TrEMBL record, chains A, B:
Name assigned to this protein: NADH:ubiquinone reductase (non-electrogenic)
Pfam families according to UniProt: NDH2_C, Pyr_redox_2
Annotated InterPro entries: FAD/NAD-bd_sf, FAD/NAD-binding_dom, NDH-2, NDH2-like_C
Organism: Paracoccus caeni
Domain External alternative NADH-ubiquinone oxidoreductase-like C-terminal per the UniProt entry, residue ranges: 344-402
Domain (FAD/NAD(P)-binding): residue spans on this chain: 4-320
């Protein structure tokens, strides 16, 4: 009887497995708790009003409508019964598997201070992005309404915590929004006076990049009006603002881009994980004691040449390809492919609306040309002609009109979520 | 000192007043509880996945960025102090006015059964639209997950209550979604079996249209697979479904398009209203006892030749023009314009993805040609080249690809809002 492959998570890794299993003749069930695949690399642009939600997400069912071998379930996984080889669903349902692929991604980590989350949302889902967008825009609105100078200043101070690519990208666009795009729209406040802080505990921003590019990025951000504060550990934060060391900074909008925590897959399996909760897998991406349970992407701790594979889309895709190859070989009774090896494509990050830094290892790029390469690469990786068209149009539009096209507040008019 | 004009509500009426007061030399404050102007005539297309939220809404500030004479406030009005001539805001603020324009629109009316709202949301705001979209899509997901035939059937039964233009438009697109667009995407359920009920208490649908067009619309809807039930008063509804007369119909998704209720403006002013809460205004659109307080649009009860002016966008715009003309004349010390007279442009409603009925009074149109006229008219009335481009693209895309482009579930994966 046909092999049952259950894949949990329709991110870059999970979808790649589905794609590469086309025609393999197995019965695939794809489970995700959202109805859409999300193009996370551009999520920061939704959070900062450059793109609309619909431009970087696709209903999973639609992507797979020509794959009768795939059943898609919108459901939340609560555990795994390794004895009976079944995935447990929140509504009580059970999905049996012969091969199980866990590609459930990661979420934010607050280093044991989960109480910080409500005041400093992270950026992983579309909901996170619209929440952050809402708070950004409402902060300006509240400042315009307020008559208290101190309160106004707090509303016009924005803090991004963590200076990896996401933090850098968020800070750059927020500064551009405040200093270039919004000024003409407010009558009582001067949004060019808004402060945008990029707060990093480590010694420099974009730590994964060469020093030269970090330095360049810092200068570019400062030109955009971002206050870059390195060596500045956040010791506390709340509705009133953030505390760096023992220096409190009144600020009503804080965004968390500091740490990630793998999803619960390790707990479901009851296996060993690293400190970030990633499942320790074999060099074949399987559990050491079960060759039919695969873990990949941000949920897995994988090393190549002793270096940990980074949590980026290309890595998840490569792992997805490898997992699919393993399953196909096994189905065909052929010898399994060798250990997984990660091929690093390079690091990139955008700085503001039209600059970027790219590290290809062999050589580096920065500035406007880097931005164009980054832009083309991302449009290329989007799914479907329509999205490519629409995203290109949105970028072209902001570029020509000096306006960001996605400035809607579509949730309650409250600064904090009730 | 300059005349202070305060306008509450940035819908079609309120924005028209702002537009026509350009250069009049008054100090305008525009107050709305949302940050965007919404193109309500296309809202049903957001609710039914044809358009994305960002395509039919525009940040009010951006629309008015070239109007230094206008201050925009994102705030909720709680009352009006007619003694001191001030508008009261939720946060305690007060906005003084010389002229006050109330264009605060309408909301749904449940005929004294407000408890029905949570199970049968209406369609007035972007949030309403995304809520309805979410429930529609989640109903199909829940049916795919369910193993209980009765439950599946209830999830695959959709009821639209009220067969005015909005109800007809919703029912048509939902049927198209279930019967033409989704079937290929589900493996366990057959969405072509989904039932879409259009429930009307009155004797025929589209009561405002000539009998011939109602009959044509009924036939077209039935061709799309909509079950049209006229003379069917809803006596009760809840999470389990709707009750028509004494016949219960199990159904998990109910949309309310039956009644409207004017906003609270009448209460704020403490004046006489009609049964729907509309403020009774003079033929100059002012309060009988205060020529400096104007009420217009869905919030006002206005009659022309003894016929009540309908709650449609063109009426609100015409009233906005009239109010601006009154204020300008008063400012210039010129004689005031005569009484307001409504010029009816015609009624139109779309039926499914590519048919419509239009009643121009003198002559009538139906079918595909009517749809094209309807479509062009609406694209023309959208604000800005970008929106026109994007909406046209979305329609063209659905037309060519047979796919609706806005199928995201961007809120919690729950059928009811917690």
């Amino acid at each position: 009887m046909t092999r049952k492959v259950v894949i949990v998570g329709a991110g870059f890794g999970g979808l790649q497995v589905v794609q590469d299993l086309k025609g393999a003749g197995c019965e695939i069930t794809l489970i995700d708790q959202r109805n859409h695949h999300l193009f996370q690399p551009l999520l920061y642009q939704v959070a900062t009003t450059l793109l609309a939600t619909s431009e970087i997400a696709w209903p999973i069912r639609r992507l797979l409508r020509n794959r009768p071998d795939v059943t898609t379930l919108l459901a939340t996984v609560t555990g795994i019964d390794r004895e009976r080889r079944e995935v447990l669903l929140k509504d009580g349902g059970r999905v049996p598997y012969d091969d199980l692929v866990l590609a459930t991604g990661a979420t934010h980590a607050y280093f044991g201070r989960d109480d910080w989350e409500k005041d400093a949302p992270g950026l992983k889902t579309l909901e996170d992005a619209t929440t952050i967008r809402r708070r950004l825009l409402l902060a300006f609105e509240a400042a315009e309404l307020s008559d208290d100078p101190a309160e106004r200043e707090a509303f016009l101070t924005f803090a991004v915590i963590g200076a990896g690519p996401t933090g850098v990208e968020l800070a750059g666009i927020i500064a551009d929004l405040a200093h270039r795009i919004l000024p003409r729209e407010f009558r009582r406040i001067d949004t060019t006076k808004a402060r945008v802080l990029l707060i990093e505990a480590g010694p420099r921003i974009l730590a994964a990049f060469p020093e030269k590019l970090s330095a360049h990025a810092t200068r570019s951000l400062e030109r955009l009006g971002v206050e870059v504060q390195t060596g500045s550990p956040v010791t506390d934060l709340g509705e009133a603002g953030v505390v760096i060391g023992d220096k409190p900074i009144p600020c009503r909008t804080v965004i968390w881009a500091a740490g990630v925590q793998a999803s619960a897959a390790g707990t479901w399996l009851g296996v060993e994980t690293d400190r970030a909760g990633r499942v320790m897998v074999s060099d074949r991406l399987t559990l050491p004691d079960d060759p039919h349970i695969f873990v990949l992407g941000d949920t897995a701790h994988v090393e190549t040449d002793g270096k940990m594979v980074p949590g980026v889309a290309p890595a998840a895709k490569q792992q997805g390809k490898h997992v699919a190859a393993m399953i196909r070989a096994d189905l065909a009774g052929k010898p399994l492919p060798g250990p997984f090896r990660y091929r690093h494509m390079g690091n990139l990050a955008t700085i503001g609306p039209n600059s970027a830094v790219i590290d290809f290892g062999r050589f580096q790029l920065r500035g406007r040309l880097a931005w164009w390469i980054w832009g083309l690469a991302h449009i290329y990786f989007l799914i479907g002609t329509r999205s490519r068209l629409v995203v290109a149009l949105s970028w072209l539009w902001s570029f020509l009109s000096g306006q960001n096209s996605a400035r809607l507040i579509t949730q309650k008019e409250t600064l904090r979520d009730q």
